[in-house]
Design a protein that fits this description.
Family: Belongs to the CDIP1/LITAF family.
Structural class: alpha+beta
Largest sheet: 3 strands, antiparallel
Strand order of the largest sheet: 3-4-5
Pfam family, one: zf-LITAF-like
Keywords: Membrane, Metal-binding, Transmembrane, Transmembrane helix, Zinc
Shape: elongated
Membrane topology: Peripheral membrane protein
Order of helices and strands: HHHEEEHHHEE
Subcellular location: Membrane
Length: 150
């Protein structure tokens, strides 16, 4: 699996766009406030309360693109570890679970007792449960059980 850059996230494009166009947003905001001031002198105090002044790009809050846990995810996800509180890209650990045993039993019945076919799901990664592990502290941050009947 290719190593992904942790400094890049889906929200980075928005942040880069805002950095490039900060002046346009500030001019638009100032024009809006000036047009409101020209129309009515009683409203300026309300506008400054409703539309806060942006003095720097750091004041703009962006939506967090991190997920809370790895539950239900079949690929590695970027999240904040529940144990060490660091932003991480989860490492996937696969283990044999209930769904794997159910498929093995089904294969054993369908293959008329041929044991080598029944063991096959235990060796296939797609038939195993997925555990999302923190690469720093090895804490499990969610899991996705294998479900044959979905």
């Amino acid at each position: 699996m290719a190593h992904q850059d942790l400094s890049k996230s889906p929200g980075d494009e928005i942040f880069q766009h805002l950095e490039r166009n900060t002046n346009i947003y500030l001019q638009t905001q100032n024009q809006h406030i000036q047009s409101q001031n020209n129309c009515d002198n009683q409203i300026p105090q309300l506008i400054t309360q409703i539309i806060p002044q942006i003095t720097s790009l750091r004041q703009i809050k962006l939506v967090n693109s991190l997920v809370q846990t790895g539950d239900g995810q079949i690929y590695s996800v970027k999240l904040i570890c529940q144990n060490c509180k660091k932003q991480i890209q989860t490492k996937l650990h696969r283990r044999v679970g209930k769904g794997t045993f159910m498929v093995s039993c089904l294969l054993l019945l369908c293959s008329f007792g041929i044991l080598c076919l029944a063991c096959l799901p235990c060796y296939m990664d797609d038939c195993k449960d997925i555990i999302h592990i923190c690469p720093d502290c090895q804490h499990p941050n969610g899991s996705t059980p294998y479900q044959f009947f979905e």
